[in-house]
Structure formats: C-alpha cells, structure tokens
Specification:
heterodimer, A: 356 residues, mainly alpha, ABC transporter involved in vitamin B12 uptake, BtuC, two-stranded antiparallel sheet, B: 509 residues, alpha/beta, Rossmann fold, 3 domains, six-stranded mixed sheet, 18 helices, 25% strand
Chain lengths: 356, 509
C-alpha cells in the first residue's frame, strides 16, 4: 500500500467504496457499455451462417486486420484532439501530403527509407503546428480552421505530385514497413496495436491525459487549476498531425504507389470510428479501445459483404447505417435511466464552438 | 361597477407555496393599486422570486390562497391566463437576443408584421419605434441590441412588454432592473418608468437597492422568511427603518461563536489597486487565520472580486505575498504558486467538470503529485480522495459518481475538496452557499472556521448577508467598485451590512 505522502491532513480511514467486482463486471459487459462488440459478434455469426465457406477462413481475419489497420491509424490520430475538444478535419489531407512527400523524396533523392519515414512524420508535425497556430493562437473554430488547412494541404499534395501517381523507388525496401510479416501479422497491424495501447495509457494513466479530457469538457476549469489549455491543444494537434502523416506514409508503402487522391477518403471513416468508439467502454469519452473495436466492426461488415458478392458501394452504405444504428441504440438505451445511472446520455460530441 | 373601479388592481390573498421540504411563502397578502409604483423587498431566500413566479403563473399557490386581478381570480395559474389579464414581466436578464435588432426582438415576442409570408420590415420597425416612443425613448431599432447602451436595452425589454397587441396592460413587474445598469443610466431608466406609469400601468418594482425604492416607489411590501411583514407608505420611511424591516431582529448568538481576533498574526497577503470591469481600486490586507468577507449588491464589483483576485478574470492589481515579495498582475498559474485557491459557487459553470467523477474533480488540481514515473498512481489518488470524501462527508460515498449527479451541497464540498487538497494559504470563495440547503450551509461555515483555526486565510465574497455574521472577522462593503465601509468583530450584523452596501456612494461611510 502506498503511503499518503501528499497531504498529511487526509484522514487515514480511507475505506474502499467501490462497487463489488461482480457488479462492475456486469456493468462492464452490458450492451450499454460494449454494444459495438455485440454488434460485431452478431455480424460474424450472420456471415458465418450466410457464407460459411468464404467467411470462416483465416484469410478473412487477416484481410480485415490488414486492410483496416490504416483506417485504424487514421482514427487513432484524431482521438487525442477530440478529447481536448478540437476537431482535426485535416487528417485526411495530412495523410495524402505525407504519402506523396515520402514518394517524392524516394524518387528525387537517395535518402534511406527510414529517413524518408521520419521526414514524412516531421511534415505531419509541421501541419499540426500550423493547425495550432490557426485554432489555438488565432482562435478560429477548429471545425472551420482545420477544414481550411486541409484544403491547402490537398493543393500542396497535388502540386508536389504534379497530378501523377508516384511509384519510383516506392517498392522495395520502403514498402517493407507496410508489408513485412511478423508471425503472420503485417506490420501495420502491430503499429495499430502499439498506438492503441500507447494512447490508452496516455489518456487513462497520465496526468497529461487527464488534462486532455478536462480541457475538452471544460477548458476554463482546467485553466483555473493552472494547466495551459493552449499547450494541451497545441500538442494534441501536433500529435494528430504526426500520426496521420505516419498513416499516410504507411499507406503509400502498402500500395507501393502514392496517389494524391488517396488520403482524404480516410477522414470520414476515421471520425465515424472515433465517435462510435466514444460510446464504448468509457461512457461517452473518446478512447482508443472503442475506436479500434469500431474500426474492426466496420471492417468485418464491409469485407463480409464483398465476400458475399455485394456490389462495391455496399460497404459504404453499411458503414453509414451501422454508425447511426450503433450510436442510436446506445443513446436510446441510456435515455430512461439517465438520472439513475452515472452515464451521459450520448457521446459528449464536443460542440465545434468549444474548440475555439 | 363602482366597486370594481375602487378595488385594488391586484389582490394577493393568503398565498402560500410549499415545496418539498420547504415553505417558500406563508400566508402572504397585499394589494397593488392602479397606476402606482409598488416596491417589493426582502433578502435572498425571503420568497420574492417565488411570489413573482406565482404572479407569472409558473407556480400555482397552495389551496386556500388566491390572486385576483381587476376583480377576476387567477384560476388555473397559466402564463397565458396571466398574459390575458394584462400582467407583464421583465426579468433581470431582459430576455433579449443580443445579435438581433430592437425591431426583431419585439417581433420575436409578439409576432412580426407580415405581408403574405414575408416580414414587412418597414412596418415592423415602425411598430417597434412606436412602442419605444410611448415610453419616451428614441433609438435605432435596426441596430443589434448588443451595440446599444445598457439602459436602452432595458427600455426595449420594457417597451416590448408593454405591447398591447394582446390586450390591455395593467401591471409591469420589474425584477432587479438596475442590477446591470451603470449608475449614470439609472436616472434614465426612472424617467422611462415614470412614462410607463403615465400610461396608467402599475409597476411592481423588485430591488435590493433601498435608495432607489425610497426615491421611486409610493409603497413598499416587505417579505421576510416567506412571510409578508406588511405594506408601508414610502412617505416618512428612511433607509435604517427599511433595512430593519427587511432583516428583522438580529440573532446575537452568533457573536459568541465568532473566532478570536487574529489582528496580530502575520500577513499572508496584501492586495493593492485591484481594478477590473467594475472594481475600481480595492485593497486589503489578510492575515493568517483571518476570514475576510466581501459584501455588495450585484453590480458593486462583489461578483467580480474573487475571479479578479485569482487571475480567472482580467484585472489589474498588485499583491504582496507572505514573504514580502511584490507581484503585478495575476494568472491562474501564479495564483496557484502563491497558494490562492478560487472556490467558485457550485452553480458556476466553471466550478467543476460535470462529466468527471468526484475523484477526477478532486484530484485535478494536484495530479502531478500523484504521478510516479509518468503514471498517475491510482492507489494514491484514491486514498487522498477517499480521505476528503470521508472528512467532508460527501454523498454518495462513491468516488466514481459523476459530479453532475450530485446535490448542490455535495457539489460545493467537492469543489472545496479540490482546493483543500492543494493546501492553499488563502481560499477565495465566491458565493459559497448559493443553491445549498441549510444543513450544508452550516457544514460549510464549520469548515471555514476549522480551516481558519488551522491557519488558512479566507476571502468570502457573498450575496447572502447571512454568510458574514459569525463567520467573518472583518467585512468590506463594496459600492460602485470601491470599499465603502469596513465592519469588524461585533459590528458585523445583517442590518448594518445591508445599510452599508445600499449607500449610493462610498463617501458617506
């Protein structure tokens, strides 16, 4: 037991008043807490019955993991800014820029692949700083500010690429970062797992993580306890810039080509997963665990539908419908007991205005 | 026919109102005559707001009481009925949309002038101008009201209330109309009110400002602890007598409980030249173990002082800390370093984080000290929070309960625990007892005394005069952003404080 060295005035008789373990387990496994997990299992059962020969194979699992690990990286990148009440709508364009930049560096210099990755991520950090300048310093609403920077980044991307798909030197050593297998699992899946655990640790186990949530919920309270809210938000934006850039570099390595049109399509799935994830595990708080479950759930459904022979546009309809259904069910589930139970009725969807 | 004409405009007869566990109004009877300005006074919690809400149809009085308007009883207590009978209300916040113009604000309340589906803007503006002209006010009705002077906004709210589109207006109820007005504009408002009375409309004027009431009203009704203490003519009334009627006999028992004077202990804080939006050069000294009260009406700078002193609101000031070092200006970080803790009222939106648990709120200001190797040690955090929950008796005894589900008193304790946890040298409290029930109130007083005895100093800013007697060693009365009077020891009584804070200027104190 730790000694209380912090405040001598605290009485010793600090008895545990937490709910019994059984009750906590029941609460933890309830549909209200992990609805998406149940929906995910339901999907697996449905496809297992519908197309058992195609679906119940090891490759299906690998396909889902490998294909959706990049979406997962994109989704994880925005979790931290969202906890601080800031929307980073530029992540898709940041992915595109970093992807093109790395391909351009490979084709026009003889830097080693590792240096190229580092430079790509550094570009993301610069994007984050630029976003912070606009959102934190100039106090422009993050919803508008990052939409604008996203547009500028997309233009830069097009400029660097010359509207071409870049492929020179992209295959080979560089593409290893996205295609090497470790025990049958591709590296991007490992990146996803490492990042999920790291973000989870940061948000839930460190003081800075707590300040992130506090900033998102009430920046003034946070400022009054002596925390620099501006610094919290700046670092959050730099973080999302770096992770999004890394996702973009990995994407280029994976498809062994850099298409200037590639990044932006990841923005909407990323936000869907982050918001759906916020309804899971942590009762309305943005968190990496729920975000990854959401990505996997969306991935399983999409891959299953394609395996079952559905048209190529079906997954997108599926993703939209599931997002509405999953969040909707959670909201309805929580509504009648909102007063009795310590759970907000909906994800705290930080109003765009809160970010200004 | 004749009987109706001579009967009072409004008769409140034996009106009581009981809320669960609390009787807000008990057997209140009074009458308002046609065309008079009738003042309604009473301390916070005396039942004024409940009475106004009963008049407005938001509360139905308990069976047995009734409200009669021009001979017709207010039966089903609905806002529509009240409106039909010609009662209009202007609340302290005026209810205007700041970004919209006067013409638009008038339209929002009583409908827009239309031509087909389209708003007839010319006609709408003319209508707003005509309403304003009736009370002798001329302003640009197309400008956003946020760009107008405070008194012009008040005039728009009043003019809008007097729109006779929905029938004859008989009574205008004004709730603290001068609270947000700069002193220079109060006269202008009074001219408007005299115009209103000229139209044959009676005014029920609710205010804390005794001077205004003495200068404006013909009669005054006094409420104390939910009971009507009578209606008195203003003629022959003076401030001291009115204050006595409002406060009642003093409870002298408090004097015995007063902590011993600490005039000899060392200084922990000196504040000089505190200036903000209203504050205009306030200064004081604070000693170890001292409890300093800050009293004042709304608009006196009292609401601003706590935030200004701790860097939460922009202000200019010089502070000298216990070691004699001088600091210019204040930020939350500097306040934390100097050991100044801002304890906001639980109703204040920035007092705590509703979506955080009790534990997360209490530990927020001290997270780094639970951190070992980058990780917040859950066991240390929990032990500290459990300790505070125990010693302050925060309920429910569940540190993971969300703050927003707590009662007012428990919220206040959580806010206190957050700062107690940081062991500050000076607690700056803002309205610590608002929205707190009587039991919790005494709990908070006890805590303040206990901490003061242990050596902490307190600055207690409060709108509730009851908070000062028995808790404070000294009280500063603020008027117009300056210290108008200082009371200490046995001088601190509700009636003397009330008299001190209602003076017009700081000169005669």
């Amino acid at each position: 037991m730790s000694q209380n060295v912090v405040n001598a005035e605290v009485p010793r008789a600090a008895r545990r008043r937490r709910a019994p373990a059984g009750q906590r387990l029941a609460r933890g496994l309830s549909f209200r807490t992990i609805g998406a997990v149940y929906v995910w299992l339901l999907l697996v059962v449905v496809f297992a019955i519908w197309i058992p020969d195609l679906f119940l194979r090891e490759e299906t699992l690998k396909t889902v993991l490998n294909q959706y690990s990049i979406t997962a990286l994109a989704a994880l990148s925005i979790v931290v800014p969202l906890t601080t009440g800031v929307f980073d709508l530029s992540i898709g364009s940041t992915m595109g820029l970093a992807g093109i930049l790395s391909a351009w560096l490979l084709g026009n210099t003889d830097l080693s692949p590792l240096i190229v990755v580092v430079l790509g991520v550094a570009a993301g950090a610069l994007v984050g700083l630029f976003n912070a300048l606009i959102v934190v310093k100039m106090k422009i609403d993050s919803f508008i500010g990052t939409l604008a920077t996203g547009s500028i980044l997309a233009a830069l991307t097009l400029g660097i690429s010359g509207d071409q798909i870049l492929t020179e030197r992209v295959a080979g050593g560089f593409s290893d970062i996205a295609s090497k297998d470790v025990g049958g699992i591709q590296l991007p899946v490992l990146y996803m797992i490492v990042l999920m655990v790291a973000i989870g640790f940061f948000l839930e186990q460190t003081a800075s993580g707590r300040y992130c949530y506090a900033t998102g919920y009430n920046p003034e309270v946070t400022r009054l306890v002596g925390v620099s809210v501006d610094r919290v938000r700046t670092l959050a934006l730099v973080f999302s810039g770096c992770v999004a850039a890394f996702a973009g570099v990995v994407l280029t390595a994976r498809i062994q080509a850099a298409d200037p049109a590639n990044g932006p399509s990841y923005m909407i799935p990323a936000f869907s997963a982050a918001f759906l994830g916020a309804t899971q595990f942590r009762h309305g708080r943005f968190n990496p665990w729920g975000t990854i479950v959401a990505v996997l759930m969306l991935g399983t459904g999409s891959v299953g539908l394609l395996l079952a022979g559905a048209p190529t546009w079906a997954p997108q309809i599926f993703q939209g419908a599931v997002l509405i259904a999953a969040v909707g069910v959670t909201v309805i589930q929580r509504r009648p007991k909102a007063d009795a139970e310590a759970a907000p009725a909906s994800p705290p969807a930080p109003a765009a205005g809160a970010a200004a | 026919m004749n009987a109706v004409a001579t009967a009072p405009l409004i008769e409140v007869e034996r009106v009581s109102k009981t809320f669960p566990g609390q009787r807000a109004l008990a057997d209140v009877s009074f009458a308002i005559e046609r065309g008079e300005i009738h003042a309604l006074v009473g301390e916070n919690g005396s039942g004024k707001s409940t009475l106004i809400k009963a008049l407005a149809g938001f509360h139905a009085p308990d069976p047995g009481g009734r409200i009669v308007v021009a001979g017709e009883e207010l039966k089903d207590s609905s806002p529509q009925d009240v409106r039909r009978l010609g009662l209009r209300f202007v609340h302290q916040d005026l209810g205007l949309v700041a970004e919209l113009s006067a013409a638009e604000n008038v339209g929002l309340a009583s409908g827009f002038a239309r031509r087909g589906a389209k708003i007839a803007w010319g006609e709408q503006c003319a209508r707003a101008e005509a309403l304003l002209a009736r009370i002798g006010v001329e302003i640009d009705v197309e400008r956003p009201v946020s760009e107008l002077r405070a008194v012009e906004r008040s005039a728009i709210a009043i003019a809008r209330a007097l729109d006779e589109l929905h029938g004859e207006i008989r009574l205008l109820v004004l709730d603290e109309p001068t609270a947000a007005l700069p002193p220079a504009e109060v006269e202008a408002l009074f001219r408007v009110l005299h115009e209103v009375v000229e139209q044959g409309v009676a005014i029920l004027y609710v205010s804390h400002r005794l001077e205004e009431i003495l200068g404006l009203a013909q009669r005054v009704t006094v409420l104390r602890d939910g009971r009507c203490k009578g209606t008195f003519p203003i003629e022959g009334m003076d401030r001291a007598r009115l204050a006595e009627l409002i406060v009642g006999e003093e409870v002298e028992a408090d004097a015995a409980a007063r902590p011993p004077s600490c005039a000899t202990s060392e200084l922990v804080l000196t504040v000089r030249g505190l200036r903000g939006a209203v504050l205009d050069g306030v200064g004081f000294e604070l000693r170890r173990g001292e409890v300093l009260g800050i009293a004042g009406l709304s608009g006196s700078g009292r609401e601003e002082l706590a935030a200004a002193l701790t860097g939460a609101a922009p202000a200019r000031l010089t502070v000298v800390d216990g070691d004699g070092r001088e600091w210019h200006g204040m930020t939350p970080k500097r306040a934390k370093r100097l050991g100044l803790a801002l304890v906001l009222a639980n109703r204040h939106p920035d007092a705590a984080i509703g979506q955080f648990s009790i534990r997360e709120n209490v530990s927020l200001a001290l997270l780094p000290s639970y951190t070992r190797g980058g990780r917040v040690r859950g066991s240390e955090e929990r032990a500290a929070v459990d300790g505070w929950m125990e010693s302050l008796d925060i309920r429910p005894h569940d540190p993971d309960k969300l703050y927003s589900y707590l009662s007012g008193g428990n919220k206040q304790k959580v806010i206190l625990a957050k700062w107690l946890n940081t062991s500050p040298t000076v607690f700056v409290m803002d309205d610590p007892t608002s929205g707190v029930d009587i039991g919790a109130r005494h709990g908070i007083y006890g805590l303040v005394r206990e901490q003061a005895a242990a050596g902490a100093a307190f600055v207690v800013c409060s709108s509730d005069l009851e908070d000062f007697a028995g808790v404070c060693d000294r009280v500063l009365a603020l008027v117009g952003g300056r210290v108008a009077a200082e009371l200490s020891g046995a001088e601190i009584s509700e009636s003397r404080l009330l008299q001190a804070i209602v003076t017009n200027t700081g000169k005669d104190a």
